[in-house]
Structure formats: structure tokens, C-alpha cells
Design goal:
Chain A: The chain crosses the membrane at residues 6-24, 40-61. The complex is a heterotrimer of chains A (236), B (247) and C (298). Chain A is an alpha/beta fold and 236 residues long. Chain A has two domains: 2-56; 72-234, no CATH class. Chain A has helices at 2-23, 35-57, 63-66, 72-90, 193-196; strands spanning 103-112, 117-122, 131-137, 141-149, 152-153, 156-157, 166-170, 173-177, 182-190, 211-212, 216-223, 227-229, 233-234. Chain C has two domains: 2-215, P-loop containing nucleotide triphosphate hydrolases (Rossmann fold, 3-Layer(aba) Sandwich); 217-297, 2-Layer Sandwich (Alpha-Beta Plaits), CATH 3.30.70. The longest helix of chain C has 17 residues, at 161-177. The mean pLDDT of chain C is 87. The chains are: A alpha/beta (236), B mainly alpha (247), C alpha/beta (298). Chains A and B meet through helix 1, helix 2, helix 3, strand 9 and helix 5 of A and helix 2, strand 1, strand 2, helix 3 and helix 5 of B. Strand 9 of chain A pairs parallel with strand 3 of chain B.
Chain lengths: 236, 247, 298
């Protein structure tokens, strides 16, 4: 955007000058197209643009994954909810419904479990260390749920671009592997500033990148009497 | 001898039809300007990136703003051209007076602004299609607007272009009064830009841009733009009273 | 009803007066010739009539309205000159159709027939025409518009003599079929005098005379003979033009106002009386001095 703002004055000046010079050249010397030919050209241009517009709605992209753009205030709301998650966790409470819209359930696993002890290990803690929450249950299995905080880049919901970690249960040790490293290139198309102006979106004049990112929660349900080794937050 | 009684509005309508035909050339220049703007926009208007070790992103922005700005300048220049002698005298080969000339010019510029405003929106879709078919396998986000947002956006776009035609109409009328303005106006413009650059506080031009550009209330925006356009056209009409119609 | 009425009409350009206290009126359905030298103010006067220019003082009424910036006058009059400007995007045919959409009395058939007669290419642009062809095309617009007041300012400039004759004939025929007020300016009186009913002669922005062509033919008389006798007979007369022929003869044009007797007396005393052509009379009346170019060399 700042690039746009930087070159605009130059373009303005060049176009202005050339336009004025063009405007005051003696008119009769200029070859002029006839009305019919001009109508034809303008008509074809309009038709091409209309076809392109229709095509753009039929493009082979999934419009749902492409995502809706969120306004700053919407993002702020989500951020607020996300901020409350950790407080909640340290108080030993975690209710999925409370964080609805801010936390997305990405993946779940379940393993039958009969051991007396359980050890967590992160395969690569430098790169991936989710908060691990543990709830003791009566079931005879381990259930794992991976939650990811709604990830928003510049108003675009990119949550479903984030991949989930892997979990392997090997006797009494639960190995948590990194999600596949993912690099996503986005192209964000927006209409002209006159469209953003009345839709509560940032305009060229008050543009700021806003987004939220980086909440990883692995929620585990572990049988009651299992001895657990590793960093975790007991909840519920 | 029977004198024909004429109705000014009838003549305005006829002149408007006549201008739609004879000024058709301005639309070919619109096409050229928008194609240039599409080419500029196709490089992207900005980028950002970020992420963690497991997820990283780079975001390229493509916006229709460049197309709109180019089109606004087209509107400005079109209006200046229409006030030039060559175009004014064409009116006087047929029935006219100043009132009908100004009114039909205004109607023509309004129609041109509407056409240009709609094409600005269509051009942004054109860029999307061009992008999808030439640069594939990336995630593409379209800013999705509701119908209401789209309608407001189109109206806003048209009003921006129309406002620029009114500025052009005013500038053109000044130039018709005295050719000196061809030199004076750019000097004033650059003077203001340079003064803005030198001074620590932002002055006129950014203020003017923000006055319109930061108005997020659609109703107030319409009011501001229409009032400013009316002012420009009003000045132009007053100025042109000093001119003889066809020396 | 008077079509055009001027009272003390004055137009000032800078320090000089293009028109100076001009007063006249033109009745409806007449063909009037506006005659004058180059720079006499013909074009200025016609443009004021057409509503193109402001006048500086005095009064002008066209159809009883002030013409400047007046839609009614614009709708009922048309001003044809060779500087008429048409949009370059439109072909000649499209221009005729456009003109037809504007002028309420437009005769498309006449326009088409004249267009074919002068073998115009309908697809060509006005800007690409030669000067003469431009004038011819403008004339077609002027005639077919059938405006109650049709003004031709030097309409034949650039036309070859054949087209000129056709033009005058076309004006006359169409005028007879559809009488209206036509004002035609020219500095070539000879060509138009058969066409005109009235002549308005102006000199340096002032009215010289305004009368029917028939009267103008009887307005003056030329007298030639020995200088001594001429001087004697003409003492105290209103001399319009004077030219010495050879060493002792003179040709004088005087206004015919006195009694027939005086002229007969002049004839008796050996002077020769001749009629003065309108063409020459207009020249004499509008020249700056009575002596003509000879004075420069004497």
C-alpha cells in the first residue's frame, strides 16, 4: 500500500502533463476514429470485462477456503476471546463452547490405553510446543484433540491452511510430531479504495495490517489413574 | 414566418445525444488508460509476510485502487478537453446557449463517470481472472463484499470520478479565460506538493484527500462530494460567462 | 415583424470600434446583402446577430429578443461561415442527421439531394474537406435548416465559379419555395446583386446605406468630360467619386438627387452621363477618400 501511495503522485503528474499537452494540440490534425468503429471497440471492451467478471465468480477456487475478509473490530473480538483462553487454562478450566469462534477443532485422535503411566514427548520442541491440557476421564482410552486458535492474516481467515501435528502412541509414550511445515502464498485481491471506505475495512489512508496467530492447544483425555510425566495443565 | 418555440430541456437532450456520439473518443482513451492501469496493478500493489516455523505465509496485495486513480485522472483530463475551444465551438454549429451547453456537458460527464466507475469494478475482476490463469497454484483470496457494500462501492467510485470531472471542468474553464493558467496551475500544484514536503505538518493536499477518503459514512460522503462538485461546476459556469461564445 | 433591429449598435475591440452606432432594421422574408470592404465589420455584425458575440452598447433585437446566449434566437437562426466547426468523429452523413435532429424545420430530402448533387462522400470527415467543399457542405446545412433567419457570412469563399453559381441559384430557388429572411455578406456585389432584394452597405462599422437594390441602381450617376466643365457643373454637389482621365478629363460619380434638369443641362454642355453599376457604386461609397487609389500616387 505504501508503494502505491509513493508512486501515485508521480503517475498523477505524468498523466496530468501528458493529458494537458494532448488536449491542447490542434485537434484537426489528429486522426479520429469514426463513431461506429469506436462504439465497436468500447462495446467489445465492455463485453470482455463482463465475461471476465462472470468468469471470476466461476473460477476454480474454493470460495469458502478463500475466506471472507474480517473487519478490524471482528478480529479484535476474536482476539479478546483468545486472550482469555490462557487465563482460563491456568485456573484449570477449559470449555470449548466458551471459545467458540476463536478456537477451531482441527483434528482428533483416540487410542485404546491400558498402561499405568504416560509420558509426553515433543519431537521438536523448538519448533512446535503446544499447550497440553489433560482431563482425567473414566474411559479406557486416550483421546486427543488438536485445537488451533483462529488464525487471521490481514483480515483473512487462514485457519484451515494450518496443518495438524501427528501423534503416535508407543506403549506408554505419546510422541507429538510437528505439523508439516507449510508455506502459503496468498494473493489478496481487493477492490478499489472507494469500496473499502464504506465497509469498515482499512482504507489506503488508515491501513494497518492486523491479524492473530499462534495458539496451539492439544487437549488430552487420559484415564483417571494413569501417572503422567511431562509438562501439562490439568483441567476440568 | 413561424418561429419555432424551443424547450431548453429538449435541446439539452439533443445535445446530450450528439455528445454521446461525437465525444465517443474519450471512451477509447479510457480503455487505453485502464489497460495501462491493469498492467501496473498486475505487479501487485504491496506485500507482507510472516509466520512461525510450522506455518509461514506471504501475502501479495492486488487492488483496484490504481485503476480507480488512473480513471479519476482520465475524468479530469476528459473534462478539461471538453471545455476546450474545439469542443465548445462544435456546439455552436447547432442550436445551443450556454445553459444547455453546460447542462449537456454535465450530463455527458456524469454518464462517462458512471460507465468508467462500473468498468473500474469490472477491471478488478479482470485482474483476478488474469491472475488465476497466468499465475496458478496459489491460494487466492478475494475480498468478498456484500451486495450493499458493492453498491455503495460502485456509487462511491462513480462519485470520485465525477468529482474529478468537475475539477477538470473548472480547470478547463480557467484555461479558456487565460492560457496563463496552463503554467500557473501546475506551478501552484507542485508548489503545494513541495511545501507539503518541506513543512513538518501535513498541509492542504493530504487534508483534502483525507477529507473525502476517510469519510466512512456513505451519506456524508455523498454530501461532501456532491457539494464539492457543485462548487466546481458553479465556478466553471460563472467563469465562462466572461467568454464570448464563438469569436 | 422586424427580424433584426439595431439601434446605435456599437462593438468595441480594444480601442477601435468594429461597429459604430449602427442603426437599421430588416423586415421579414427578405434577402439582404450585407456589403462592405474587408474589415468593415460585416462578420462582427453577423456574429452579434447570431448571438455569438456581445455588443458593447446600443441595442440589437433579433425576433424581438436580445440574441446573445438566447436559445430561441439560436433555434430560429443559423450562421454559416467557413469556420463552422464540426466534431471530427462524425461523418458528413452523420452530421446532416445530427443537424436534422436539432433544427425543427430541417428538410432532410433537400439536404440529401444537394449532398448527392455536389457528390460528397458520405463517410468522409468535415475536417478532411477542401476549403471550397467545406463551404459547400456548410451551405447545404444552412439551406436545409430552413431557419427563419439564415445568415451566410462570405458563403462562397473557396468555391469555384460553377459551384458559386449553383449556390446562388439554390438559395434563390429555396427562398422562393420557402420564404424566410436571409442575410448574405459578400464583398463581391456583382455576383449577388441579382439575388438580393435589399442591400445594407457598411463602412468602417457605420451604416453607409440600406435600400432596395432597385433603388440603388438609380442612386447615382456617372459624369465624364472635360475637367473644367465638370467642375463648373458640379460645384456644390455631393461627389461620391472622382477620377481624372488623361490630362484634362474627369470622371465623377454624384448622388442623383437634384432635378432632372440639371443633368440635362450637363449633358447639353458636352458631358457624358452613364449609369453606375451597383458593384462600382458600393466600392466608391466605401472607399476612404473620394479620389481612390490615384490619390496615393498624385
Amino acid at each position: 500500500m505504501s508503494l502505491l501511495l509513493a508512486i501515485v503522485p508521480i503517475i498523477v503528474v505524468v498523466l496530468l502533463l501528458s493529458g494537458i499537452l494532448f488536449a491542447f494540440k490542434p485537434k484537426k490534425k489528429k486522426p479520429v476514429m469514426g463513431v461506429k468503429k469506436t462504439k465497436w471497440i468500447v462495446g467489445s471492451y465492455a463485453v470482455i470485462l463482463i465475461i471476465a467478471t462472470v468468469l471470476s465468480f466461476l473460477l476454480p477456487i474454493d470460495r469458502n477456503t478463500a475466506g471472507k475478509s474480517l473487519s478490524k473490530s471482528e478480529v479484535d473480538k476474536i482476539q479478546k476471546v483468545q486472550d482469555s483462553i490462557y487465563g482460563s487454562i491456568s485456573n484449570g478450566r477449559f470449555k470449548e463452547q466458551e471459545f467458540k469462534g476463536a478456537l477451531i477443532k482441527k483434528k482428533s485422535w483416540s487410542f485404546p490405553f491400558n498402561e499405568k503411566a504416560l509420558t509426553f514427548s515433543l519431537r521438536n520442541p523448538d519448533n512446535f510446543s503446544p499447550s497440553i491440557l489433560v482431563e482425567k476421564t473414566n474411559a479406557r482410552e486416550i483421546q486427543g484433540i488438536y485445537y488451533v486458535g483462529k488464525a487471521i492474516v490481514d483480515g483473512i481467515d487462514v485457519t484451515d491452511k494450518i496443518s495438524s501435528p501427528t501423534i503416535h502412541l508407543n506403549h506408554s509414550s505419546l510422541i507429538i510430531g510437528n505439523p508439516d511445515a507449510k508455506e502459503v502464498k496468498f494473493a489478496k485481491f481487493s477492490t478499489a479504495f472507494s469500496f473499502d471506505q464504506f465497509s469498515g475495512k482499512p482504507t489506503v489512508f488508515n491501513h494497518e495490517s492486523y491479524g492473530i496467530f499462534g495458539i496451539d492447544i492439544l487437549y488430552l483425555k487420559v484415564p483417571k489413574n494413569v501417572q503422567i510425566t511431562g509438562d501439562y495443565h490439568p483441567v476440568n | 414566418m413561424y418561429l419555432a418555440e424551443v424547450n431548453a430541456w429538449d435541446i439539452v437532450k439533443k445535445q446530450y445525444q450528439y455528445k454521446l456520439q461525437s465525444y465517443m473518443g474519450v471512451f477509447t482513451s479510457l480503455i487505453v488508460i485502464q489497460i495501462i492501469a491493469i498492467l501496473f496493478s498486475f505487479n501487485g500493489t504491496g506485500m507482507s509476510g510472516g509466520g512461525s516455523s510450522t506455518f509461514s505465509y506471504s501475502l501479495n496485495y492486488y487492488s483496484g485502487s490504481m485503476i480507480l486513480i488512473f480513471t479519476m485522472i482520465w475524468g479530469l483530463i476528459t473534462a478539461i478537453i471538453i471545455t476546450s475551444k474545439a469542443y465548445r465551438y462544435d456546439d455552436y454549429s447547432f442550436i445551443t446557449n450556454r445553459g444547455t451547453t453546460h447542462t449537456s456537458n454535465l450530463l455527458f460527464l456524469l454518464s462517462a463517470s458512471i460507465f468508467a466507475g462500473i468498468t473500474v469494478l469490472l477491471c478488478t475482476h479482470f485482474i483476478q481472472v488474469l491472475y488465476i490463469y497466468s499465475v496458478n497454484s496459489e491460494s487466492v483470496m478475494f475480498e468478498q463484499l456484500t451486495i450493499i457494500q458493492n453498491l455503495k462501492g460502485i456509487s462511491g467510485t462513480i462519485l470520485y470520478i465525477f468529482f474529478f470531472t468537475s475539477i477538470g471542468y473548472f480547470i478547463g474553464s480557467l484555461i479558456q479565460i487565460s492560457r496563463l493558467f496552463i503554467f500557473v496551475l501546475p506551478v501552484l500544484f507542485f508548489g503545494a506538493v513541495i511545501a507539503d514536503g518541506l513543512g513538518k505538518e501535513q498541509s492542504m493536499i493530504p487534508h483534502v484527500i483525507k477529507f473525502f477518503g476517510n469519510e466512512s459514512s456513505f451519506g456524508l460522503f455523498i454530501l461532501k462530494i456532491l457539494a464539492a462538485s457543485a462548487l466546481m461546476y458553479g465556478f466553471a459556469i460563472i467563469i465562462s460567462k466572461k467568454l464570448e461564445v464563438r469569436p | 415583424m422586424k427580424v433584426v433591429e439595431c439601434k446605435d449598435l456599437t462593438k468595441v475591440y480594444g480601442r477601435s470600434n468594429a461597429l459604430n452606432n449602427l442603426s437599421f432594421s430588416i423586415e421579414e422574408n427578405k434577402i439582404t446583402g450585407l456589403i462592405g470592404r474587408n474589415g468593415a465589420g460585416k462578420t462582427t455584425l453577423l456574429k452579434i446577430m447570431a448571438g455569438f458575440l456581445h455588443h458593447s452598447s446600443g441595442e440589437i433585437k433579433v425576433f424581438e429578443e436580445t440574441p446573445f446566449n438566447n436559445l430561441k434566437v439560436s433555434a430560429n437562426s443559423i450562421f454559416i461561415d467557413n469556420e463552422m466547426s464540426f466534431p471530427p468523429a462524425l461523418s458528413l452523413k452523420e452530421l446532416l442527421i445530427t443537424a436534422g435532429s436539432f433544427y425543427p424545420y430541417w428538410d432532410q430530402k433537400l439536404a440529401d439531394r444537394l449532398f448527392d448533387y455536389f457528390s460528397f462522400n458520405p463517410n468522409i470527415r468535415h475536417g478532411n474537406l477542401s476549403k471550397g467543399m467545406k463551404s459547400t457542405f456548410n451551405m447545404i446545412v444552412g439551406l436545409a435548416a430552413r431557419c427563419p433567419l439564415t445568415i451566410f457570412d462570405e458563403p462562397t469563399s473557396g468555391m469555384d465559379s460553377g459551384v458559386r453559381k449553383d449556390f446562388y441559384r439554390a438559395v434563390l430557388k429555396d427562398y422562393l419555395a420557402h420564404p424566410r429572411s436571409i442575410i448574405l455578406s459578400s464583398h463581391l456585389v456583382e455576383e449577388v446583386e441579382d439575388l438580393l432584394e435589399d442591400i445594407l452597405l457598411i463602412k468602417e462599422g457605420e451604416k453607409c446605406l440600406h435600400m432596395p437594390v432597385e433603388d440603388l441602381k438609380e442612386y447615382a450617376v456617372g459624369i465624364s468630360g472635360k475637367t473644367a466643365i465638370v467642375d463648373e457643373v458640379l460645384s456644390g454637389k455631393d461627389i461620391i467619386f472622382e477620377q481624372s482621365i488623361g490630362t484634362d478629363s474627369t470622371y465623377v460619380v454624384i448622388k442623383k438627387d437634384g432635378s432632372q434638369k440639371e443633368l440635362e443641362k450637363a449633358e447639353e454642355s458636352g458631358l457624358e452621363l452613364t449609369a453606375v453599376s451597383i458593384d462600382n457604386l458600393c466600392l466608391y461609397l466605401t472607399s476612404k477618400t473620394t479620389g481612390g487609389i490615384d490619390h496615393v500616387f498624385s
